[in-house]
Amino acid sequence: MPILKGIKILLVDDEPNILDFLEMGLLNEGFEVQTAQDGMSAVRVAKEFQPHIVVLDVMMPGMDGFEVCRMLKKTGNISVIMLTAKDEVEDKVKGLTLGADDYMAKPFSFEELLARIQARVRNQFPNLLGEIILGPFRIDDRRKEIVYKQQVMELSPTEYELLRFLVINHGLVLSKMTILDKVWGYDFGGDENIVEVYIRSLRDKLSDKEHRLIRTLRGAGYRVDLQ
Length: 227
Fold this sequence. Notes:
By secondary structure, the protein is an alpha/beta fold.
């Protein structure tokens, strides 16, 4: 992943130590960073700063992260990664329902947050990157083309979107429901086993007979390993 100059990130957390740590790390990665310690400040800073990505704590005094997320999502194409001290399903569902794009439970590693930020950039702001090169893959959204090991792949539109989603989120475990939501759409009414059918087709086209590239994690989902 290249240094992401020009990508703007707003960090929102009421714990100064966390803000300082994340700000220093993200600045070192080449991002433009601003911070806020409460919900009202976050909304004000976002309006002025116009960030691409907001890393947003849920539990804050006054206006909580859920309300901030709801307000930010009304303003435009902002990607929101929500943080919480609790890994509770209800909180996750509420955040995602309000438009959050990703969710992480504290404590978390900086490396994992960076990977999720990079995935959000590749997903929502590919125009800022041009071609996306990840391991043996080159993804060109303008031409709707994926090159694997210097060979252009023959893919249907759905295969393209699925492989793109898997590769862009490489290293992360993606459940069937997550894949259905992001590739087929939340209102897809078919059988979730359609994911298995398309994964099998992609493995054939990638000559991934031993499933070393697209791995199956039983009961959890799929993960692309590029190493």
